[in-house]
Amino acid sequence: MAKVGIFFGTDTGNSRKVAKTIHKQLGDELADKPVNISKATVDDLLSYEVLIIGTPTYGDGELPGLTAGTSAESWEEFMPQLAGADFSGKTIALYGLGDQAGYPDNFVDALGMLYDAFADCGASFVGATSTEGYTYNSSKAAMGDEFVGLVLDEDNQKELSDDRLQAWLKQIESSWA
C-alpha cells in the first residue's frame, strides 16, 4: 500500500481544511499530514507515488500567490520549480475550490492550471468528476462534461461538499491500494 502525499495551496484556509479532512478520512497509516505548498519542494512531491493536490482559484482565474493578493507564497511561486521535473509513474488526484456565482467565467481555473502543469511533467490523473450540478460559464478545469478533479464551492454549495468529497475519495481509493 502506497503512502499518499497531500499538498495544498491556501490563503483563507479553506483548501487547508479540505486537506485536513482528506487526511482524517484516510488516516495516518495511509496518508502523511497535509503540507502547504509554500513549505514544500518538488522533491517532497516526488517522494510519493500517489498525491492529492489542492488549490483555490483567486481573482479572475489565478493561482493563489502574491500577485493574486495572498498574504504568503503559494502555487504561483511554486510552479516554476516544476520546470524539468519528471512525474512519470506518479498518480495525482486534484481538488479545487471556487465560487461559481462570483466567478462564473473562470470557475476553478487554477485547478485546470495545476492539471496542465503536472500533465506536462508526465503525471497520470485519477478523480475526474462530473460538471453536473454546477452553474458557470467557463472553466479551465472542465474537459467536456467532467472536471479534471473534485470541485467544491464552499461559498454557494457548502452543503454538498461532504457528500462530494466522500464520493470522490471512494472513487480514487484504488489508487493507493
From TrEMBL:
<comment type="function">
    <text>Low-potential electron donor to a number of redox enzymes.</text>
</comment>
<dbReference type="InterPro" id="IPR010086">
    <property type="entry name" value="Flavodoxin_lc"/>
</dbReference>
<dbReference type="InterPro" id="IPR008254">
    <property type="entry name" value="Flavodoxin/NO_synth"/>
</dbReference>
<dbReference type="InterPro" id="IPR029039">
    <property type="entry name" value="Flavoprotein-like_sf"/>
</dbReference>
<comment type="similarity">
    <text>Belongs to the flavodoxin family.</text>
</comment>
<keyword id="KW-0285">Flavoprotein</keyword>
<keyword id="KW-0249">Electron transport</keyword>
<protein>
    <recommendedName>
        <fullName>Flavodoxin</fullName>
    </recommendedName>
</protein>
<feature type="domain" description="Flavodoxin-like">
    <location>
        <begin position="4"/>
        <end position="173"/>
    </location>
</feature>
<keyword id="KW-0813">Transport</keyword>
<dbReference type="InterPro" id="IPR001094">
    <property type="entry name" value="Flavdoxin-like"/>
</dbReference>
<dbReference type="InterPro" id="IPR050619">
    <property type="entry name" value="Flavodoxin"/>
</dbReference>
<dbReference type="Pfam" id="PF00258">
    <property type="entry name" value="Flavodoxin_1"/>
</dbReference>
<keyword id="KW-0288">FMN</keyword>
